[in-house]
Q: What sequence folds into this?
């Protein structure tokens, strides 16, 4: 069978027009057997995060937040579907699951509740999409991704259990594909062996689509986005960005590793393993091929800039001035791992060890406390990490303009700099 996997992110289903546009694309490619993976509506995942936090910490009005979310979903559903009573009941029944949780006091870990509650966003968006497609005469069928995607129970960052996932996905989805059904399923979520819902990490829907592509031996995978394809920099930050028409898997992995937000970093590996081409395409121009990521020979690329905001540098030194030697480093790394502090760049000198990481003050405080009194830890905040792949002098100079470079590393095609923006000083007028 020739079938494809499509993925639509939250931005493509943020309102009525978005749903209609997705439906048009699905209709256009209906005979190519798309399996469709969808994220939660617009900013729903953030809203659900606020709901879990407000209930777990007892701060804020959880019920008000929940009602607002329910209303947004109901409004979209009733604007799309003429006889909306069934879908409105479904929305209500789905949200009752959150009601049940928040009636009690939290007893389990925050991450466990996070997954049970935040996953509801994808359940709602896919239920509305399936009902809408059926209402306009398309043979859509709603599939619960948790019946296919099996994971361990690392809540908020669940790891895939590949053998079970492969078996269940084929069992559940192949017969439907063969019947010509259009499967509508959720990105981002899975289930543990105890049958609890898990999530794969923020923006994880791309990864879901790649997992399904792998398990179903899809002919290709297509991520539909609000950009023309993979670009040389974030168009919100830079002018004159270029679209890259083709990328190798390797280049795509490198770019996402350094923080390019265009695809989730875990997406490429399953596709590369089975040589499945990935298209990143604009949903407002379905004829355009966008960017094709595949197993091509290394191409030559223009400079590609990735900026990670909200960074900090931790400078760790030992109090007795002893070298930060192997035994010190291994205990520092064990602690970083324990607190899931991701090292974006690092450097060690005679007496100190510096790492650049995302600035999460709570995690960093805990880390510092646990480092104990043998170490001293100084933090520089308000930094950015700039990565330029395939850099040239011109781009490098432009990026250094009005910035103080605190740490820099050049490796073959890549340069990385941890920088602080320096305000431009103007001379005072003196008379
Ligand atoms: N809805 C989830 C998020 O916003 C997953 C995704 O969009 O890929 O992180
Ligand atoms: Mg999203």
A:
């Amino acid at each position: 069978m020739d079938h494809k996997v499509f993925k639509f992110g939250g931005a493509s289903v943020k309102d009525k027009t978005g749903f209609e546009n997705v439906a048009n694309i699905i209709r256009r490619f209906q005979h190519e057997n798309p399996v469709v993976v969808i994220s939660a509506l617009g900013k729903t995942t953030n809203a659900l995060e606020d709901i879990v936090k407000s209930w777990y910490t007892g701060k804020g009005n959880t019920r008000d937040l929940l009602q607002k979310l329910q209303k947004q979903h109901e409004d979209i559903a009733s604007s799309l579907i003429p006889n909306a009573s069934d879908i409105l009941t479904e929305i209500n029944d789905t949200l009752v699951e959150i009601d049940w949780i928040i009636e009690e006091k939290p007893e389990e870990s925050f991450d466990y509740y996070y997954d049970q509650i935040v996953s509801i966003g994808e359940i709602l968006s896919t239920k509305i999409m399936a009902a809408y497609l059926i209402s306009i005469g398309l043979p859509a069928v709603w599939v619960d991704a948790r019946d296919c995607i099996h994971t361990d129970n690392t809540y908020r960052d669940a790891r895939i259990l590949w053998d079970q996932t492969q078996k269940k996905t084929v069992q559940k989805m192949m017969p439907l594909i063969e019947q010509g059904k259009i499967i509508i399923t959720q990105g981002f979520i899975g289930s543990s062996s105890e049958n609890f819902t898990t999530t794969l990490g923020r923006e994880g829907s791309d990864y879901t689509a790649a997992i399904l592509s792998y398990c179903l031996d899809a002919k290709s995978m297509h991520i539909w986005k609000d950009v023309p394809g993979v670009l040389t920099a974030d168009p919100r930050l830079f002018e004159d960005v270029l679209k890259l028409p083709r990328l190798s898997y390797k280049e795509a992995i490198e770019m996402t590793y350094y923080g390019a937000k265009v695809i989730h970093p875990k997406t490429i590996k399953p596709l590369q393993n089975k040589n499945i081409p990935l298209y990143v395409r604009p949903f407002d121009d379905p004829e355009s091929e966008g960017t094709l990521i595949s197993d091509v020979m290394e191409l030559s690329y223009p400079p590609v800039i990735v900026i990670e905001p909200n960074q900090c540098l931790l400078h760790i030194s030992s109090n007795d001035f002893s070298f930060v030697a192997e035994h010190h480093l291994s205990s520092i790394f064990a602690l970083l791992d324990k607190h899931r502090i991701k090292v974006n760049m690092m450097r060690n000198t005679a007496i100190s060890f510096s790492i650049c990481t995302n600035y999460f003050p709570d995690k960093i405080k805990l880390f510092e406390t646990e480092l104990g009194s043998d170490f001293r830890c100084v933090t520089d905040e308000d930094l950015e990490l700039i990565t330029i792949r395939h850099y040239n002098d011109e781009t490098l100079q432009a990026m250094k303009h009005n910035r103080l470079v605190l740490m820099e590393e050049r490796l073959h095609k890549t340069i990385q700099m941890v920088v602080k923006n320096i305000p431009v000083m103007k001379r005072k007028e003196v008379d």
